[in-house]
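ok so for the tutorial part 2 we go from a plain amino acid sequence to predicted structure tokens. step 1 is just haveing the sequence, like this:
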Amino acid sequence: MHLTALLVDEYDTALSFFVGKLGFELQEDTTLGDGKRWVVIAPHGAPSGLLLARAVGDRQRKAIGDQSGDRVFLFLETDDFARDHLAYTERGIRFVEAPRHEPYGIVAVFEDIYGNRWDLIEPCAAKG
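step 2 — the prediction. this is what the tokens look like for a chain of 128 residues:
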């Protein structure tokens, strides 16, 4: 998989959060006409990213922040949970739970500016 579309209210508002607070990189921002843009962001070094899709129409606007029915929607992997959890907390990212240890790694759920739920996760080292 290459891209996942994420409904947003406005491109620049979304970029301010994802690039400014989460530290993602802007990979592409191309004007398509009629107010549409092709905006791709991704964590540094990630092979896949998010296509920020500005919602059009009532149905899409209602889905902003609830594309997964209030479940965790996206998973952000880190190699240093403590570092990133602290940095995100200091930048005002809202975690909805305390970090916890699971068999698969250290994880905590946070919400983006729209209310989409994300897992920040540091996976356990692969067993050999």
